[in-house]
Design brief:
This protein has helices spanning about 5-10, 20-35. The chain is mostly helical. The protein has a domain at about 5-35. The longest helix has 16 residues, at about 20-35. The N and C termini lie far apart (about 65 Å).
Length: about 70
């Protein structure tokens, strides 16, 4: 049985390719071979960056032409 790294090298994957691309390829191989869809584990999922306390969004609601607030 071949190692995943050997298969990827034969397929032309670069060693410096992103881990997410490599993981997606392996998940695709598993699904193609077994019909089972594999999703990333909870530790592998990307999370959105959280805002720091005190960060606040601001919006300019004035009309650019008149300078008056709208809405």
């Amino acid at each position: 049985m071949k190692k995943v790294g050997d298969i990827m090298a034969e397929m032309g994957f670069r060693k410096e390719a992103s881990d997410s691309l490599k993981e997606a390829f392996v998940r695709h191989l598993i699904k193609a071979a077994t019909g089972v869809e594999v999703s990333p584990g909870p530790n592998e999922r990307k999370t959105r960056p959280t805002s720091r306390p005190g960060d606040q969004l601001s919006f300019d609601l004035s009309d650019e032409e008149t300078g008056k607030k709208t809405g």
